[in-house]
């Protein structure tokens, strides 16, 4: 199967067992670090319950994906590819939409992870001094004589803060100037900022430069193929997940959990407000918004079935890979948010460094030890944890592009494989897209905007794919399934598809962007002209022979529509729930 490096197409190498796929998917537990602060901000005291409920949904849903993965032993690219084939005979456009939505949900892990990692590196090497630090106090003492009651900044401060004394105003202004003067230049350096109407501002700053370098390092590791990626992941996972596990378990064992912090499960009165709210429409909107963003992390272990075509024995390995990845995620997504909230409380989790992700390492280390050395070790571990998540994302998302190309849904150039069996053109595409996103996410506002839009794609993919489970049962019941989910679970997961539609409609607006849902819909629709060109212009309206061979269909035959109008009714009901939820649920006032 080995290909020469200048080959225009090729095959992935069967080099993995289920443990290898498990280790590649082991980058999912650190995704808790991406949004633990954001979810605490919108769910308040209910935050840890959001994580547990969301993880339970993700685990149940994975059984539908595991069954479908077993049907396609010759494909890579994950659940979206396997589910998309169910929709093909009902609409050619929905299949590429599902694949595209899955890809643009997973791919931003690269840019968001690199943005947080860059923040950690900048904080470690070029810290911004605290207002109460000795260097700031020394600067103030040396320069205080330069400020008087008539200094313009002091006058403005007193006007903005009624009742403050002149002496206090002078000290406050001098302290602000000291922090600014002592902040390393690299922290405020920006080569260029480009504003894009309707989208945001691209910041080409120090975060962007460091993040781009990190991405290139990860690309170099993956260039050597899935086997070397899996072995690198295994080492990283052991180094990262053991301390992360200790952070979750130590506070429980030592009695550091304050039960007041994990009782009275009520959303806050407003997002990022410390006051307890109630279960009114505003409270439910915040709770559903938290469920919406948690799904992006907790459902993510479905990436374990991205590597079917690279498994030595896909018939038995696919189920084991996703099942054990799910169990691993249950441990982390149940325990870490519970311990985190139990120690810090809803108010403590609203610290700026926790909300933007860059202070999570120091906070986690303080749950285990007060030693400064431990803090530094944890910050290094957090950077490695982000690496682990980014490696997982690049490996999975590039294979989604690769298989989408092989199956005739995405541009042809994406199906090129190098001599190590790595889909390099798809990886370069991932890299280019994420450099753009990294520029957008290089400030805190843009970070959550990228997350909110990418999640529109993720829940759209989950909705289409959970419905694909029962469509495959009806249309392709004859196809051998090495592992078959209990029928009641296929039914329950179909109900959960519509629960996800509810999260999508209500939740997208919670993250500070009224139009995040519509931005996501527009972005999802971008694939349609790309697909039409590939399918109707390049391929003459026919799918490649291999696209449907796993279903026993050849010569462009899409098979009989045994499910009748049911798939169309499911789509209509899903759209209706999204629109109703988006109208009905409003943020507290």
TrEMBL record:
It is a multi-pass membrane protein. The chain crosses the membrane at residues 21-42, 48-66, 99-122, 202-223, 235-257, 277-301, 321-340, 373-396, 485-504, 516-533, 568-586. GO terms for cellular component: plasma membrane. GO terms for molecular function: transmembrane transporter activity. It is found in: Cell membrane. It comes from the Bacteria. InterPro entries: AA/rel_permease1, APC_superfamily. Its main location: membrane. The keyword Transmembrane applies. Gene3D superfamilies: Amino acid/polyamine transporter I. Keywords: Cell membrane, Membrane, Transmembrane, Transmembrane helix. PANTHER family: AMINO ACID TRANSPORTER-RELATED, INNER MEMBRANE TRANSPORT PROTEIN YBAT. This is APC family permease. It comes from Paragemmobacter kunshanensis. The lineage of its organism: Bacteria, Pseudomonadati, Pseudomonadota, Alphaproteobacteria, Rhodobacterales.
């Amino acid at each position: 199967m080995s290909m020469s490096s200048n080959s225009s197409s090729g095959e992935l190498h069967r080099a993995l067992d289920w443990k290898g796929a498990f280790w590649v998917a082991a980058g999912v537990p650190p995704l808790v670090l991406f949004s633990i602060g954001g979810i605490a901000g919108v769910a308040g005291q209910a935050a840890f319950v959001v994580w547990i409920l969301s993880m339970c949904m993700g685990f149940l849903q994975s059984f539908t994906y595991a069954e479908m993965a077993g049907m396609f032993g010759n494909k890579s690219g994950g659940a979206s590819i396997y589910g998309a084939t169910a929709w093909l005979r009902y609409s050619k456009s929905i299949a590429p939409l599902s694949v595209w939505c899955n890809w643009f949900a997973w791919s931003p892990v690269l840019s968001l992870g690199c943005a947080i990692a860059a923040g950690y590196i900048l904080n470690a090497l070029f810290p911004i001094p605290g207002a109460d630090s000795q260097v700031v106090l020394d600067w103030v003492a040396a320069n205080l004589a330069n400020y008087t009651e008539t200094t313009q900044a002091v006058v403005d401060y007193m006007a903005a803060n009624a009742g403050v004394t002149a002496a206090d105003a002078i000290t406050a202004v001098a302290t602000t100037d000291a922090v600014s003067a002592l902040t390393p230049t690299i922290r405020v350096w920006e080569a260029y900022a480009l504003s894009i109407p309707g989208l945001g501002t691209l910041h080409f700053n120090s975060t962007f430069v460091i993040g781009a370098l990190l991405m290139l390092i990860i690309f170099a590791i993956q260039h050597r193929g899935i086997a070397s990626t899996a072995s690198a992941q295994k080492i990283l996972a052991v180094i990262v997940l053991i301390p992360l596990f200790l952070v979750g378990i130590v506070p429980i064992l030592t009695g550091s959990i304050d039960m007041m912090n994990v009782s009275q499960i009520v959303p806050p009165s407003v997002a990022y407000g410390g006051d307890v709210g109630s279960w009114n429409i505003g409270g439910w909107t915040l709770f559903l918004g938290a469920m919406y963003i948690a799904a992006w992390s907790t459902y993510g272990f479905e990436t374990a079935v991205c590597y079917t075509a690279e498994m030595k024995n896909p018939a038995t390995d696919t189920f084991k890979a996703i099942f054990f990845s799910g169990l691993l995620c249950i441990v982390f997504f149940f325990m870490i948010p519970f311990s985190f909230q139990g120690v810090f409380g809803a108010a403590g989790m609203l610290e700026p460094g926790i909300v933007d992700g860059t202070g999570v390492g120091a906070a986690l280390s303080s749950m285990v030890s007060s030693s400064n050395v431990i803090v530094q070790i944890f910050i290094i571990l957090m950077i490695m944890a982000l690496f682990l998540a980014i490696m997982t994302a690049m490996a999975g998302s590039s294979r989604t592009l690769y298989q989408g190309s092989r199956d005739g849904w995405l541009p042809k150039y994406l199906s090129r494989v190098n001599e190590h069996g790595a889909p390099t053109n798809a990886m370069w595409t991932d890299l280019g897209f994420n450099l753009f996103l990294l520029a957008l996410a290089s400030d805190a506002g843009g970070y959550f905007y990228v997350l909110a839009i990418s999640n529109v794609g993720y829940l759209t993919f989950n909705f289409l794919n959970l419905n694909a489970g029962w469509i495959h049962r009806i249309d392709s019941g004859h196809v051998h399934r090495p592992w078959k989910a209990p029928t009641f679970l296929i039914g329950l997961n179909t109900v959960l598809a519509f629960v996800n539609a509810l999260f999508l409609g209500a939740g997208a607006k919670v993250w500070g962007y009224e139009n995040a849902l519509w931005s996501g819909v527009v972005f999802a629709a971008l694939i349609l002209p790309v697909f039409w060109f590939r399918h109707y212009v390049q391929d003459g309206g026919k799918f490649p022979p291999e696209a449907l061979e796993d279903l026993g269909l050849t010569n462009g035959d899409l098979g009989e529509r045994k499910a009748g109008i049911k798939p169309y009714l499911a789509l209509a009901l899903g759209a209706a729930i999204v629109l109703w939820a988006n109208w009905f649920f409003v943020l507290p006032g």
